[in-house]
Amino acid sequence: MRLTFRIKELADKKKVTFAEIERNTGISNGQIRRWDTSSPKIENIQKVADYFNVSTDYLLGRSEVSSIKEADQEDKLSSQIMFRMNTEGLSENEVDELKDEVDRFLRFRRAEIERERELKQDDKA
Questions:
Q1: Distance of CA 13 to the CA centre of its chain
Q2: pLDDT tens, 34-57?
């Protein structure tokens, strides 16, 4: 599916024109229509994706999952399935212990990522 066609579908749902999208995202006038014949900058694709709250993969036709929220739900379901597959044959107590351990690891890793992010921001300042 062409990029401009996907954007047109989203624009129709939101009742906006290409010109309005361009104004609201800071993309130059008439640019979106030119994407049928020229390659857009990735930054501009990201701006349009953010405007409609969809993934760039959806805009580019690489995914049929339009909303980021739907993609997150699919990821959560995949994680649950993987957990069940990897706990098959364990007792209820062992599964509970494993859940606790996974939760501790995720909290630890999240804190680590947040610290790394803060350090990067401090380096930029």
A1: 20
A2: 998 999 999 999 999 999 988 888
Which residues touch 38 (CB under 8 Å, ≥6 apart)?
none
Residue 79's identity, in one-letter code, is S
- Let me know how long the chain is: 125
The string of pLDDT tens digits covering residues 78-111 is 777 777 778 888 898 998 898 888 889 988 998 9
Buried b / exposed e along 13-41 (16+ C-beta atoms within 10 A): eeeeebeebbeebebeeebbeebeeeebe
* 3-class secondary-structure state, position 3: helix
> Measured between alpha carbons, how far is 17 from 8 in angstroms, rounded to an integer?
8
How far is 45 from 102, CA to CA, in rounded Å? 36
